[in-house]
Specification:
By secondary structure, this protein is α+β, with helices and mostly antiparallel strands. Helix content is 31%, strand content 36%. A five-stranded mixed sheet has the order 1-2-3-4-5, with helices on both faces. Belongs to the UPF0102 family.
């Protein structure tokens, strides 16, 4: 597996554990369709929480969350609607979060959970 894919997979594992430990119920991970992929989908008191996970090993090119562009946010919103319909879930409140994971080479991972950011 390419290094960037390994970093991304590790970050998603860390993010899913973090979200579960924060009281969210992880409903799906890495859900895919022809439109793209959702990283982590959670339930939280009757609402869906769709989390885009961004992982980096450093901040030379900015923080992980800065990689979520307006285009990416639009795609995630469309994918969330598709996931909801494909899973037979009626209208429900959906919150869109970013989970930023920083994996420095010689230090512990840092997780930052940005709620309702797009």
């Amino acid at each position: 597996m390419a290094r960037h894919l390994e970093v991304g997979a590790r970050g998603e594992d860390i993010a899913a554990r973090y979200l579960a430990s924060s009281g969210l119920v992880v409903l799906a991970r890495n859900w895919r369709c022809e439109l793209g992929e959702l990283d982590v989908i959670c339930g939280d008191d009757g609402r869906l929480v769709v989390c885009e996970v961004k992982t980096r090993t450093g901040t030379h090119y900015g923080g992980p969350a800065e990689a979520v562009t307006d285009d990416k946010a639009r795609r995630v919103r469309a994918l969330a609607r598709r996931w909801r319909l494909d899973n037979g879930i009626g209208p429900v409140e959906i919150r869109f979060d970013i989970v930023s994971v920083l994996l420095p080479r010689d230090d512990e991972p840092t997780v930052r959970h940005l709620r309702g950011v797009f």
